[in-house]
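Protein 1 of 2
SEQ + STRUCT:
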Amino acid sequence: MTKCSDNSAALDYSNEIRDQKEQMLSLPIVKVIHSDKSTFIQIYNDLKSLNNNFLQYIQPIKESYMKIATYNFKDGDEDEKSGNGETDTNEKREYYIRAVQCYEDAVKNYKYALAIFTKSSNNDQKNISIYQKKIYDVKLNY
């Protein structure tokens, strides 16, 4: 989708994938809790296992937020370019409003990724700076 510059479709698809990953995070635990056959010890052990593998589960969600933010940013750029080509003032304004919304969504999603990263790592300052720079770069556009 991004190869044919359809960032809106890529954004919708990536949001859907992220939603599924977030739902899958707790699904095994919910199944065990709802099962008539599971014991308290089994639920406890499954929760402990989830806790031990939490980073493995959360990493793809963080990556999804990064991808979504990138698509938001590109989508905003496309709207801004389209607005620049418009002669009708109302149309131009609509494109710019949409571009600003895309940029704001990009910042929000980069912040989500940063929050997951800082909670799930040893807070490597170099990597935190990368996220903060992406947020700063997006804010420069609007």
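Protein 2 of 2
SEQ + STRUCT:
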Amino acid sequence: MSHCSRHPEKKSTGTCRVCQKTYCPECTGSSIGICPGCVYKGLIILLIVMIVVSYSAWFGIF
């Protein structure tokens, strides 16, 4: 078993489904198998998509 990419002193418990980096129990915030960095990136992308959709609905672009 390899070590966590964020905490090198700890053993990893799994790999991220998105970026394939290893993580330890401290890094996981949920049981979906995605590291915190990828979760934050996904939330930022979701926020941007929501903003674009709301502006297109407000101004009637589509």
